[in-house]
Amino acid sequence: MAAAQDSRRHGRIRAVEAAIKRLDTGEFGWCHSCGDSIGQKRLEVNPTIMRCRECAT
Ligand SMILES: [Zn+2]
């Protein structure tokens, strides 16, 4: 149980680190799949999100 929680937390840290890296490279806010804008609202809900609404579904 504790190990599962640990790995979940670790995954979240990795996602945040990846988001910061995308900020550095200018890729933040752009869909990883189609290259379109992800959208301000989606990023406010989850800044580590990597895909637009179209590609996430
Ligand atoms: Zn997309």
How would you describe the overall organization of this protein?
- There is one protein chain.
- By secondary structure, the protein is mainly alpha-helical.
- It has one domain: Four Helix Bundle (Hemerythrin (Met), subunit A) (Up-down Bundle).
- It binds zinc ion.
- The site of zinc ion has 8 residues, from helix 3.
Quantity of strands, as a count: 0
Tally of separate domains: 1
Q: Note the main sheet.
A: none
| Secondary-structure-derived class | mainly alpha
User: What is the CATH homology-level superfamily?
Assistant: DksA, coiled-coil domain
Give the overall silhouette.
globular
Mean pLDDT: 94
Beta percentage is: under 5%
Order of helices and strands: HHH
Roughly how many Å is the radius of gyration? 13 Å
Unreliable residue stretches: none
Q: For this structure, what is the CATH class?
A: Mainly Alpha
Helix run count: 3
Question: What small molecules are bound in this structure?
Answer: zinc ion
CATH topology: Four Helix Bundle (Hemerythrin (Met), subunit A)
Give the terminus-to-terminus CA distance: 30 Å
CATH architecture: Up-down Bundle
